[in-house]
Amino acid sequence: MNEKISSLRESFERELEAAKNSEAVEKLRVAYLGKKGSVTELLKGLKDVSGEQKKEMGQHINLLKKQVEEKIGAQIEKIKAAEEEALVASTEQYDVTLPVTEAEGSYHPITLVQRQLEEIFASMGFTIEDYSEIVDDYHCFEALNIPKHHPARDMQDTYYLENGQLLKTHTSAAQNAIMKKYGAPLRAIFPGRCFRNEATDACHENTFFQMEGIMIDKNISISNLIYFMKTMLSEVFERDINVRLRPGFFPFVEPGFELDISCLICGGEGCPSCKNSGWLELCPCGMIHPNVLTAGGIDPEEYTGFAFGLGLTRLVMMKYGVKDIRDLNSGNLKALSQFRHE
Residue 342 has what pLDDT? Predict the structure, then answer.
């Protein structure tokens, strides 16, 4: 038995030295320590050894087993380290001393104008809020005095989801949540992306950006609305802009208006961007309807307020002279990279 143990130890050492990869070491482990392995067979042979010799031989075999396990484990770690080192050595090398490009990316023009507007309204005491693009029917319509089956819903071709929610059709969907969050008095703007299932042309897109604004306090009137709109436009365009205020119907304001600006693409002469009218609808607005204030937890007998939905995308078109609204969602980096933050 001692001769078998000694011979087995020597053969194991030779085979272990020859095992140069993980697969070879695993085969060696099975050959010596598996159910039918050489060391396992020695342990099974102890039943034929008598008395005192059985105990002594058992100690020698267990020592051999322990040595085999330890050396196999060490060989596996050694091979893994060598394989990792070889992998690192084989990877592509880079010269880290090479000069790097200093070219900078650019912000999307809508991002630039949105940030400019946020700065303008923040300077006038407005809080800047954010709101989800996926909303429920209540916040998008019912809380805005547009009950189910109201014909005003036909004005907004809505994308409905299978779970009953929808993609918000206007940033006005945030009004109820903002009112309940702050109460009155309140000044807040909330820019965001909106979605409507409509045909696209030079001045219409199915995905566009708006910026909602509301101001609620005691004794707020139309004159406050006009003041803030004129201040905003003069800051954005850095010049006087021809505007007109005409009646408009929106269930969540009373009275309601359309604030148009003279088309800066054609100078008011008429072009595809303004539907050849010379004017571009920029900002639906009006005094917040008492039902909307009530839904937001604000007493319409004590407070009044105005709301506006500024078309960010159209504002960008006028500011930068973009003739086709579809260019802004085109992903054309050559066209968009010309806009820089000063």
Answer: 54
